[in-house]
């Protein structure tokens, strides 16, 4: 049985995520497109979980529609290849969604972890991403309701980056073309100590 610590008494950490925030530039000194994504740092050690609440609107430029953090239905959806040592990300139903990635203190490089496919699987209760593995956050709520989705922090993580998944051809390309994006997501996140481990492996 999962029991989160009393993080509800803690203040949310506010993070502004401009639409130009390039999640695939996480951990780098310069963004190859757009801007470096914002991040929250924390000490490595005990297992933690993160919950989110997100709002705001962004558009990925070129007259595209505006979207909330959960993304919008978009022809072909999102299918971006790995880049800068980070995994790609897939959701063939949606585009423009809020995306995260956990890093340690190193600069990402080398072979990335597997790419996660969130097509039709956005409404998970828990998710356990690996280091350097980009993942769907959306608005952080199950089925758009009031139940918070729980994101487990991988061992060794010291930073959580927030950004947007974008590419010049969103449905199948390398990441890029962030410079014409507009708008901002406002995210409130809480870091939770885990008081008891789940009885089964967290899954999405």
Structure description:
0% of the residues lie in helices and 34% in strands. The protein has 204 residues and is mainly β. It has a single domain, classed as Galactose-binding lectin (Jelly Rolls, Sandwich). The strands form four sheets. Strands 1, 2, 4, 11, 13 and 15 form a six-stranded mixed beta sheet that branches. Strands 3-14-9-12 form a four-stranded antiparallel beta sheet, with no helix packed on it. The protein has a three-stranded mixed beta sheet with strand order 6-7-10, with no helix packed on it. β6 and β7 (89-91) form a beta hairpin. Mean pLDDT is 89; it is low at 1-9 and 196-204.
Main sheet summary: 6 strands, mixed
| CATH superfamily membership | Galactose-binding lectin
Silhouette? globular
User: Might you state the CATH topology name?
Assistant: Jelly Rolls
- Intertermini distance: 16 Å
Total discrete domains: 1
> Low-confidence parts lasting 5 or more residues at pLDDT below 50?
1-9, 196-204
**What is the ordering of alpha helices and beta strands?**
EEEEEEEEEEEEEEE
Number of strands: 15
Helix count?
Answer: 0
Short description, anyone?
By secondary structure, the protein is mainly beta. The protein has strands spanning 3-4, 13-18, 39-41, 48-59, 72-73, 78-80, 89-91, 94-95, 98-103, 116-117, 126-127, 135-136, 150-152, 159-164, 182-196. β6 and β7 form a beta hairpin.
């Amino acid at each position: 049985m999962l029991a989160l610590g009393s993080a509800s008494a803690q203040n949310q950490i506010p993070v502004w995520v401009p639409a130009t925030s390039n999640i695939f530039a996480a951990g780098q000194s310069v963004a190859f497109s757009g801007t470096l994504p914002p991040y929250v740092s924390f000490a490595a050690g005990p297992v933690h979980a993160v919950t989110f609440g997100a709002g705001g609107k962004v558009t990925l430029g070129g007259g595209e529609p505006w979207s909330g953090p959960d993304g919008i239905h978009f022809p072909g959806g999102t299918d971006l290849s790995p880049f800068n040592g980070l995994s790609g990300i897939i959701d063939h139903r949606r585009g423009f969604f809020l995306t995260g990635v956990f890093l340690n203190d190193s600069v990402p490089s080398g072979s990335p972890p597997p790419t996660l496919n969130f097509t039709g699987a956005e409404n998970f209760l828990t998710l356990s991403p690996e280091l350097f593995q980009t993942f769907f956050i959306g608005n952080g709520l199950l089925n758009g309701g009031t139940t918070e989705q729980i994101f487990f922090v991988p061992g060794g993580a010291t930073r959580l980056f927030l950004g947007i998944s974008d590419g010049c051809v969103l449905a199948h390309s390398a990441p890029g073309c962030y410079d014409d994006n507009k708008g901002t997501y406002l995210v409130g996140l809480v870091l939770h100590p885990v008081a008891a481990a789940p009885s089964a492996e967290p899954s999405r």
